[in-house]
Amino acid sequence: MRISFIDLNAQYKELKKDIDLAIKEVIKRGDFILGKDLRLFEEEFARFCNAKYAVGLNSGTDALFLALKSLGIGPDDEVIVPAFTFIATSLAVSYTGARPVFVDIREDTYNINPEGIKKVITKNTKAIIPVHLFGQPADMPKILELAKEYNLKVIEDSAQAHGARIRMEGCWRKVGAIGDIGCFSLYPTKNLSAMGDGGIIVTNAERIYKKILMLRDYGRVSRYKHIIIGYNSRLDTIQAGILRVKLKRLDKWNLMRRRIARLYDRLLKDIPQIITPYVSPDVKHVYHLYVIRTKLRDKLLKVFNKKGIPALIHYPIPLHLQKVYKNLGYKKGDFPVAEKVASQILSLPMYPHLKEEQVRFIVGILKQVRN
Question: DSSP characters for 262-331?
């Protein structure tokens, strides 16, 4: 049976007519940079997140970087990030000249452990970047409580959690619009994806919104008037047109992901060697990835490779053990939960159009692997 880790073509087939039309309309107008569809997408995505403002950018990494820059974070500052996530989170901090300060994760959700945040706050700490990893919201109530106590900014890395929600004070809130700034990647594999690189931020603060508008476009306020050092980080209008089409389907696709996750959960629940994803009762997980844990990870991966089933490891090396951060002085054993999780995780195929028979086939192969 042929199975892809993610089938982008299936997504395109569902929307082919509308996507093709959106692309043709942009070509017809010729407004490829900062055009009509970008403005409309920003408005629609802000509304989707229940935020006041959104700014389209050229990547999720730039979304994080420009979010930090908009808050004035730079050399001599410290920003707290989880030790277990994709490296873009910490690289964005490094780009500003600030120091990423790592914190261990919770073993159940794989998100940053709020208990560890307080221990590393210093007079130089300026912000916390919680990552809503794999599609599950981090513990935002506790993180916001700490941020308020120590006067810190909160930048949500929502790159893997478009549409995910968390219950706070009796209300369901979408990630991204909970902290000071929410950062999203629109990379082709994301729940909401462009056909190329892309990113977007959301915020409820007008000052931050206006600052990022300038930062993404050479720091200018008019064609040749530049008042701050800015960058070239604009989301292309064609990509925005495509994203507008896809945004209408995002809630439906997230629901399809949840159904697939429940099927995986049900089929895997009686296998003692497998730990299926834990989901907090106060969140709505959107399953950007379906990640299991097992001590048989490497053995299972070999079997999957032989059978032609794509399975991946997100992420095999925690950030504090990456060679690029050797100068920060961390060592093996500093963040034991992140290290344990990194040695056991395995991501199974997950996308909205994955079929039930494909899931059953994957689990059938998995059940053949024993100690």
Answer: HHHHHHHTT-TT-BPPP--TTEE---SSEEEE-TTHHHHHHHHHHHT---B-S-SS-GGGSGGGGGGT--
Q: Each residue of 123-165: pLDDT tens digit? A: 999 999 999 999 999 999 999 999 999 999 999 999 999 999 9
**Overall residue count recorded for the chain in this entry:** 371
Global pTM reads: 0.98
Rounded Cα distance, 108 and 283, in Å: 13
Q: What SS3 state is found at 89?
A: helix
Exposure string of 294-322, with b = 16+ CB inside 10 Å and e = fewer, is bebbeebbeebeeeebebbbbbeebbbbe
Domain ranges of the chain: 8-104+112-247, 250-367
Alpha carbon distances (Å) from 88 to 35, 61, 93, 185, 345: 28, 6, 9, 10, 20
Q: Residue holding tokens 């997140």?
A: 49
Question: CATH for 8-104+112-247?
Answer: 3.40.640.10
Residue 136's φ and ψ, nearest 5 degrees, are: -105, 125
